Amino acid sequence: MTEITNFRGETTSQSQTDQVKASVSGLIIRVGERVRKARERKGIPRRVLSEMSGVSPRYLAQLEAGEGNISIGLLQRVAIALDHRIDWLMGEDDPWTSDALRVADLFRGANMDVQKAVLRTLSPEPVETRRAHRLCLIGLRGAGKSTLGALAGQALDLPFVELNDEIEEQSGMPVNEVIALYGQEGYRRLEAQAISRVIATHDDMILAVAGGIVADPEAYNLLLGHFHTIWLRTSPDEHMARVRDQGDERPMAGNIEAMDQLRSILTSREALYGRALARLDTSGQGIDASLAQLLGLIRDRQFLG
Fold first, then answer.
1. In this structure, what are the phi and psi dihedrals at residue 216, rounded to the nearest 5 degrees?
2. Do 240 and 168 reside in the same domain of the chain?
3. What pLDDT score does 271 carry?
4. Count of domains in the chain?
5. Pairwise pLDDT comparison (292 vs 67), residue with the higher score
6. Which residue, of 51, 71, 97, is where some domain finishes?
7. Is position 76 within any domain?
8. Is the Cβ–Cβ distance between 234 and 287 less than 8 Å?
9. Residue 237 confidence (pLDDT)
10. CA dihedral 179, 185, 187, 188 (to 10 degrees)
């Protein structure tokens, strides 16, 4: 039997080496298939996934064909763009045949009464008790979460909290530095910890969260279970205009297809944002009108009892 000596001076048989190569090859093929299926389920072309993840179309094509030896860093970008965790793409169990995925699909397609019955069965504690008087505003940047959240907090005499402020206080550095130092995975961990902390310290509050939180199942489910969630939405044009009005030119800088990319993000996340208890469209509305509608929605849905 042929033996091979590695860099540590250890020897392995040729058969062991072949098993390792086969395992790696199988992993690459498995990841490629899951990326392709996840992209097709979201209904987005490879070009759009490339724009959302920053991974070239050619590399994505190789990856989906099982020929791309993608780095962990690039794979993480793809996972985030597809609204999945990286371990979901790499696990050995087939996620497409798992009961969890089937149940999740059935739950999303069920009417509100069925969803409430399922939640009551899975959560012995009344969901109204767990949510207390906590409100959470979700949606893409530019929807009005910070502005309307702060104004609603004043009107309802509730503390208003930006989750990113909590993360910065916890980490002792700005969010962009957190991401640069720890990556998206590190940021997501701090995000989940920050949610748990505000749940433990506030029974009455309004929380605004980053738009991408819906891509993290653990953090998003924590929000849905412990907050009355409201999806603030507006048109892609207004999203972009509001961000630019805030002095941020990055959405348009060097990217002539930024608007198409924004529309694709909105489309790909629509089902996730749609899991919120309520939604409010602020398109074409001024701040005063949007605030009045938000306060009316909170009152009509009896989110504060």
1. -105, 105
2. yes
3. 86
4. 2
5. 292
6. 97
7. yes
8. no
9. 77
10. 150
Structural domain of 295? 132-300
- Whether 22 maps to a domain, the answer reads yes
Q: What is the dihedral of CA 152, 156, 159, 162, to 10 degrees?
A: -20
CB of 76 closer than 8 Å to CB of 86: yes
Q: Give me the half-sphere count of Cα atoms (radius 13 Å) on the Cβ side of residue 34.
A: 25
How is residue 226 written in tokens?
Answer: 């412990």
pLDDT of res. 252: 47
Pair 138, 286 in one domain: yes
Domain-embedded: residue 116? no
| Percent of the chain scoring above 70 in pLDDT | 71
In this prediction, residues 49-53 reach a mean pLDDT of 81
Neighbouring C-beta atoms of residue 178, cutoff 10 Å: 21
Structure tokens at 245: 């009005």
Pull the structure tokens for residue 50: 């490339």
The Cβ of residue 222 has, within 10 Å, a number of other Cβ atoms equal to 17
Joined tokens for residue 31: 């990841």
Residue that terminates a domain, selected from 97, 113, 143: 97
- Residue 15 inside a domain? The answer is yes
pTM: 0.60
pLDDT tens figures, 144-159: 899 999 999 999 999 9
**Residue type at 184?**
Q
Two tokens at 138? Answer: 């979700």
Which one of 25-39, 75-89, 126-140, 194-208 scores highest in mean pLDDT? 194-208
159 and 272: one domain?
yes
Angle subtended at Cα 59 by Cα 91 and Cα 79, rounded to the nearest 5 degrees: 35
Which CATH number covers residue 255? Answer: 3.40.50.300
* Distance of alpha carbon 142 from alpha carbon 238, whole angstroms: 7
- 34, pLDDT greater than 90: no
- Same structural domain for residues 290 and 144? yes
Whether 163 and 254 share a structural domain? yes
- The token duo for 38 is 């996840």
Confidence of residue 251 (pLDDT cuts 50, 70, 90): very low
CA separation for the pair 17, 107 (Å, rounded): 45
